[in-house]
C-alpha cells in the first residue's frame, strides 16, 4: 500500500481534503455476478485504501453493457476475454491499435504501442514455430509491463459427458469443434 501511495503521489494524483485522489467507474457484464460484480465490489474496497473512489455501475442488460464498452464509455470493466485457439484469432484483436473500434471485444481499452503492432504483425505471418514463439514472448513482455489489461481471474471451461458419449472433440477448440464424429453407444 505504501508503494502504491508513493506511485500515485509521483503521478501527481494527490489526495484531496476527503482523502480521495480520483473517482473511477467500474462496469461489469450483466449475468456475471460471481465473476464480474463481486470483482468490481472487491476493487472498490481495495482501491479505497489508496484513495481511489470506485463507483460500481450495473447495466440492466448485455446490450447496454456492450454499447458502453464498445463506445469507450468506461473507466474500468470486468470482462471475459476469450482468446480462442491461436493468438491471431483472439489475442491480436485485443491489442492491435488498428483494431481500436466502437465494437465490443475489439481493442476497447484503446491500447496503442507501435512495437506491439509490429511484433503481432510479424508473429501472425511467421511459419517457423520457434521464431513465432519468440515474437509472442517479446509481445508478452511488453504488455506485461504496459498492462492494458489485468487478468484478475480465470474462468474454467469444462466438458462433462456420459460414458455413453464417444468421439467428443478434445483439441483446443473443445465443443466449438464440429461434432460430426460424436456418437452415443
How are strands sequenced across the largest beta sheet?
A: 2-1-3
Which term fits the overall shape? globular
Proportion of β residues? 5-15%
- Which whole number gives the mean pLDDT? 92
Tell me the number of helical segments per DSSP (H or I, 4 or more residues long).
7
Gyration radius, in Å: 20 Å
Please state the structural category. Answer: alpha/beta
The strand count comes to 5
Would you kindly provide a brief summary of this structure?
With 185 residues, this protein is of the alpha/beta class. Helices cover 39% and strands 11% of the residues. It contains seven helices and five strands, in the order αβαβαβααααββ.
Describe this structure in words.
The protein has 185 residues and is of the alpha/beta class. The chain is 39% helix and 11% strand. The protein has helices at 2-10, 33-48, 62-70, 87-90, 92-95, 114-125, 129-146; strands at 22-28, 52-57, 76-78, 165-166, 183-184. Helix 2 links the parallel strand 1 and strand 2. Helix 6 (114-125) runs antiparallel to helix 7. The termini are far apart.
Question: In terms of topology, how is this protein built?
Answer:
Blueprint: H1 2-10, E1 22-28, H2 33-48, E2 52-57, H3 62-70, E3 76-78, H4 87-90, H5 92-95, H6 114-125, H7 129-146, E4 165-166, E5 183-184
Parallel strand pairs: 1-2, 1-3
Antiparallel strand pairs: 4-5
Helix pairs in contact: 6-7
Throw out a few tags for this protein:
185 residues; alpha/beta; 3-stranded parallel sheet; two-stranded antiparallel sheet; 5 strands
Amino acid at each position: 500500500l505504501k508503494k502504491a501511495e508513493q506511485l500515485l503521489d509521483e503521478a501527481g494524483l494527490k489526495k484531496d481534503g476527503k482523502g480521495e485522489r480520483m473517482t473511477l467507474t467500474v462496469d461489469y457484464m450483466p449475468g456475471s455476478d460471481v465473476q464480474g460484480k463481486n470483482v468490481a465490489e472487491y476493487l472498490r474496497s481495495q482501491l479505497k485504501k489508496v484513495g481511489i473512489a470506485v463507483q460500481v455501475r450495473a447495466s440492466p442488460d448485455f446490450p447496454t453493457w456492450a454499447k458502453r464498452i464498445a463506445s469507450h464509455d468506461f473507466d474500468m470493466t470486468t470482462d471475459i476475454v476469450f482468446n480462442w485457439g491461436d493468438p491471431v484469432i483472439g489475442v491480436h484483436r485485443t491489442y492491435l491499435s488498428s483494431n481500436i473500434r466502437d465494437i465490443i471485444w475489439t481493442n476497447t481499452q484503446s491500447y496503442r504501442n507501435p512495437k506491439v503492432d509490429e511484433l503481432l504483425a510479424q508473429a501472425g505471418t511467421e511459419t517457423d514455430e520457434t521464431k513465432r514463439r519468440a515474437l509472442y514472448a517479446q509481445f508478452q513482455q511488453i504488455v506485461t509491463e504496459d498492462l492494458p489489461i489485468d487478468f484478475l481471474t480465470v474462468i474454467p471451461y469444462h466438458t462433462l459427458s456420459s460414458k455413453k458419449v464417444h468421439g467428443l472433440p478434445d483439441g483446443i477448440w473443445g465443443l466449438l469443434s464440429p461434432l460430426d464424429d460424436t456418437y452415443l453407444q
